[in-house]
């Protein structure tokens, strides 16, 4: 895993945007895995700016979002579909986008179809991920099978509390979600994880330097062949080997840089 430490959240988004630019230059019709939450908002703003400036072209890409709340229709302002329209899809055009339907009647069918659609698109080239404060990726809470596929999950009380800030009251946060599984995420050719702030420091340390365990689903990325983690100083503060990660980045060969 490559660990990149930047001075602040804005620099993290800038570095992540450079990775997207490189990906799109290598393959204009890339299949992109997208994430929600506060973490990717700065990156999406940058991608929109770059697309409008003609620096990148997203119009041939196919996208798959990680997850969606069960019970929220795509028009609900807190649905992840509405989030993605607000931050990206209403601002730039992509060829096709996919988000699990939170109102689907047959959830197992929806999940199987989602997996099938990813396969049919040729698999995900670049998967963007945020990190839950408990080490979850997508909505794969601690204890999720590291081989899991897209399925229904029940949120932990901690995640409900973390996400309550987007709803009028904690009671309105849906308890159930559909999420790509850890195994689905692991199949992406490149995983790109972003994290900011002190609140993520424990999860970042466990993900990078702790044991690989289902209790920290993000830790499975230690076994991924191409995983990049970009964090700000605060999120890096629990990493024991942060000086080494800085050293590696400073000495990175020019051809490896985004
Ligand atoms: C939710 C999302 C995750 C996201 C996490 C962190 O649980 N399902 O994909 O990574 O929140 O959110 P934030 O970026 O707001 O800290």
Task: Annotate the secondary structure layout.
Layout (H helix, E strand, L loop, with lengths): L1 E5 L2 H18 L4 E4 L6 H12 L9 E4 L1 E3 L10 H10 L6 E3 L8 H14 L5 E4 L21 E4 L2 H7 L12 E4 L2 H5 L3 E6 L5 H9 L17 E6 H4 L5 H9 L8
Parallel strand pairs: 1-10, 2-3, 2-6, 3-5, 6-9, 9-10
Antiparallel strand pairs: 4-8, 7-8
Helix pairs in contact: 1-2
2-amino-2-deoxy-6-O-phosphono-alpha-D-glucopyranose (GLP) binds next to loops.
Structural account:
The protein is 34% helix and 17% strand. The protein is α/β, with parallel strands linked by helices and 258 residues long. It has one domain: Rossmann fold (3-Layer(aba) Sandwich), CATH 3.40.50.1360. The strands form two sheets. It has a seven-stranded parallel β-sheet with strand order 1-10-9-6-2-3-5. It has a three-stranded antiparallel β-sheet with strand order 4-8-7. α1 crosses α2. The two termini are 16 Å apart. The relative contact order is 0.18. The structure holds 2-amino-2-deoxy-6-O-phosphono-alpha-D-glucopyranose. 2-amino-2-deoxy-6-O-phosphono-alpha-D-glucopyranose is lined by residues 35-39, 66-67, 130-132, 138-139, 159.
């Amino acid at each position: 895993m490559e660990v990149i430490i930047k001075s602040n959240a804005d620099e993290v988004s800038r570095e992540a945007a450079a990775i997207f630019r490189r990906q799109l230059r290598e393959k204009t019709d890339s299949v992109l895995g997208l994430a929600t939450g506060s973490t990717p908002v700065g990156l999406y703003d940058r991608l929109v700016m770059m697309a409008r400036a003609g620096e990148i072209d997203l119009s041939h890409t196919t996208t798959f979002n990680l997850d969606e709340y069960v019970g929220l229709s795509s028009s609900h302002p807190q649905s992840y579909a509405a989030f993605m329209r607000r931050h990206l899809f209403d601002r730039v055009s992509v060829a096709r986008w996919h988000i699990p339907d939170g109102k689907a009647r047959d959830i197992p069918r929806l999940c199987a179809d989602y997996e099938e659609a990813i396969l049919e698109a040729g698999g995900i080239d670049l998967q963007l991920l945020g990190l839950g404060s408990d080490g979850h990726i997508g909505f794969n809470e601690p204890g999720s099978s590291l081989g899991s596929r897209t399925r229904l999950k029940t949120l932990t009380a901690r995640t409900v509390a973390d996400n309550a800030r987007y709803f009028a009251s904690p009671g309105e946060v849906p308890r159930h979600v559909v999420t790509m599984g850890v195994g689905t995420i692991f199949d992406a050719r490149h995983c790109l994880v972003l994290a900011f702030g002190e609140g993520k420091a424990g999860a970042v340390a466990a993900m990078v330097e702790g044991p690989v365990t289902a209790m920290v689903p993000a830790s499975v990325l230690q076994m991924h062949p191409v995983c990049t983690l970009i964090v700000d100083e605060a999120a890096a503060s629990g990493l024991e080997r942060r000086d080494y990660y800085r050293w590696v980045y400073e000495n990175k060969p020019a051809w490896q840089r985004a």
